[in-house]
């Protein structure tokens, strides 16, 4: 089991990382974040932000064991805000999981979705593209506009986090991994 950190990623030393995890280029992982790859590998797409106390877990089903082919694929430009817990089956691109939200195992999150603060999603379901889940009853509606880019926040975090935290060094370069033909 290994942790692969691609160049341009900022992963703080104080994170809890367990299992086979790949952070694609440009990811920012705050201290006290937790990523657990218990059932199989987790591949986190480019430019994702995982904030403090956020948990991403790829848990084992009862009676199952670790399987290298059971991959949790997380798309690009996702934001996992403070204290959220995400155990989704699959996650697309440009989603926001707001503070203290919970997304259970059977949920498939497509792209452009926002799971509001404190929302609990425990039933098996597929969230259509650009869905916003909000309110005490976890109401769903389609977003009028697509999710904006988090580039300014990512650039800011890439500059500031190294000033205050120790970082895990990038340890994997896909260009060097290719065999010369």
What does this structure look like?
- It is found in: Cytoplasm, Cytoskeleton.
- Keywords: Cytoplasm, Cytoskeleton.
- The chain has two helices and 22 strands.
- It has 181 residues and is mainly beta.
- Strands 21-20-17-14-11-8-5-2-22 form a nine-stranded mixed beta sheet, with helices on one face. Strands 3-6-9-12-15-18 form a six-stranded parallel beta sheet, with no helix packed on it.
- The model has no long low-confidence stretch (mean pLDDT 92).
- The relative contact order is 0.17.
- Helix content is 10%, strand content 33%.
List keywords for this structure.
single chain, 181 residues, mainly beta, 9-stranded mixed beta sheet, 6-stranded parallel beta sheet, 22 strands, 10% helix, globular
Which sheet architecture does the biggest sheet show?
Answer: 9 strands, mixed
Query: Which descriptor suits the 3D outline?
Result: globular
Note the gap between the termini.
28 Å
Per DSSP, the total helix count is 2
Task: Please state roughly what percent of the residues sit in beta strands, choosing from under 5%, 5-15%, 15-25%, 25-35%, 35-45% or over 45%.
Answer: 25-35%
pLDDT under 50 segments (min length 5)?
Answer: none
């Amino acid at each position: 089991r290994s942790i692969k950190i691609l160049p341009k990623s900022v992963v703080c030393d104080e994170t809890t990382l367990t299992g086979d995890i790949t952070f694609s280029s440009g990811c920012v992982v705050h201290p006290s974040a937790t990523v657990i790859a218990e059932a199989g590998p987790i591949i986190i797409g480019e430019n994702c932000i995982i904030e403090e106390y956020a948990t991403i877990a790829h848990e084992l089903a009862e009676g199952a064991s670790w399987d290298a082919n059971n991959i949790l694929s997380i798309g690009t430009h996702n934001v996992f805000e403070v204290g959220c817990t995400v155990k989704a089956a699959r996650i697309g691109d440009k989603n926001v999981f707001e503070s203290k939200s919970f997304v259970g195992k059977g949920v498939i999150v497509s792209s452009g979705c926002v799971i509001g603060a404190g929302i609990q999603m425990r039933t098996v379901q597929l969230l259509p593209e650009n869905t916003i889940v909000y309110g005490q009853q976890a109401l769903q509606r389609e977003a009028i506009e697509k999710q904006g880019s988090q580039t300014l926040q990512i650039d800011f975090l890439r500059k500031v986090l190294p000033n205050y935290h120790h970082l895990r060094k990038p340890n994997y370069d896909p260009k060097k991994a290719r065999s010369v033909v």
